[in-house]
Every structure is written in C-alpha cells, then in structure tokens.
Design a protein that fits this description.
Radius of gyration: 15 Å
Helix content: 25-40%
CATH class: Alpha Beta
Strand order of the largest sheet: 1-2-3-4-5
Strand content: 25-35%
Number of domains: 1
Order of helices and strands: EEHEHEHEH
CATH topology: Transcription Regulator spoIIAA
Length: 144
C-alpha cells in the first residue's frame, strides 16, 4: 500500500488527505477533507504519481470530501480524463456535496458509474471483470 499523502494545509478540518488502497488490480483512492484551490496542486501531483502504477480500475472514494469548489471539480474531471485515456476504468463514490455539484454541472454521468458506497463500486467492478473474462468478444467493455 502506498503511504498516505500529508494534508496540504495545517489540520484545520479543511485539509485534503489522500490514501490509496491497492487490491487485485483495483486502486481505491480515498479522499477526505476539501478539494479546492488550496489542495488541488497536491491532488494533481498525487494523481499523476498513481496513474503510472498499471491498475485496470480506479475507485475514487470521495465520500469523505466535505467541500469542492470549481478548481476541485476541474481537477477531478481532468484526472478522470487522463486516467480513462490510459485505458483505466474509473468509478466515483461521491459525498452528498460532491454528488450534488456533479449533478448540477453534468446532468449526464461523466464517470462510468457514480455509486453510493465503495462496496457497490467494488461489486460493479467485480461483475464487469467477470463478464470480460467470460466473454469471447474483444470489443471495449460497456459502462456499469
């Protein structure tokens, strides 16, 4: 497991912590705190480091994100695009605050799935991977 990122601000309840968990080709990236103009540089740095580790799927667990401004939203969208361009599937587990922002800005889901819990995300990935393994068709997989 990769070491957690240190908060980008003093611990005033608004810092951002990023903790990756690696399991069977899936990386779960847990974000806690605020994703905003002051924490985005560290978020971008950390995401660029994690993208090179060869995972087939990433679960962005934002259930602990208490605030996201437009800078954070932009960084999240850019991270998703870059990860997806590398052929890595991305599933988002947003907090209620993040979900509301995404629904207002992107009425159509930007991510393959926006699920309520990490368990749902892992189950969706498990079902998706099982289908891929049992399928003779080599076309690109559908979304969950």
């Amino acid at each position: 497991m990769t070491a957690p990122m240190r908060p980008s601000r003093p611990d005033d309840g608004r810092a951002l912590a990023i903790v990756p968990h690696d399991e069977d080709g899936v990386q779960r990236i847990v974000l806690t705190g605020e994703l905003d103009v002051s924490t985005v540089p560290e978020f971008n740095k950390r995401m660029s480091e994690l993208r090179h580790q060869g995972f087939h799927s990433i679960v962005l667990d934002l259930a602990g994100v208490t605030f996201m401004d437009s800078t954070g939203l932009h960084a999240l969208v850019q991270a998703k695009r870059t990860i997806h361009e590398r052929g890595i599937r991305v599933i988002l587990v947003p907090s209620p605050q993040v979900r509301r922002t995404l629904e207002l800005v992107f009425p159509e889901p930007l991510f393959a799935a926006r699920l309520d819990t990490v368990e749902e995300a892992l189950a969706a990935l498990d079902g998706h991977l099982t289908q891929e393994r049992s399928s003779v068709d080599t076309s690109s997989p559908g979304t969950a």
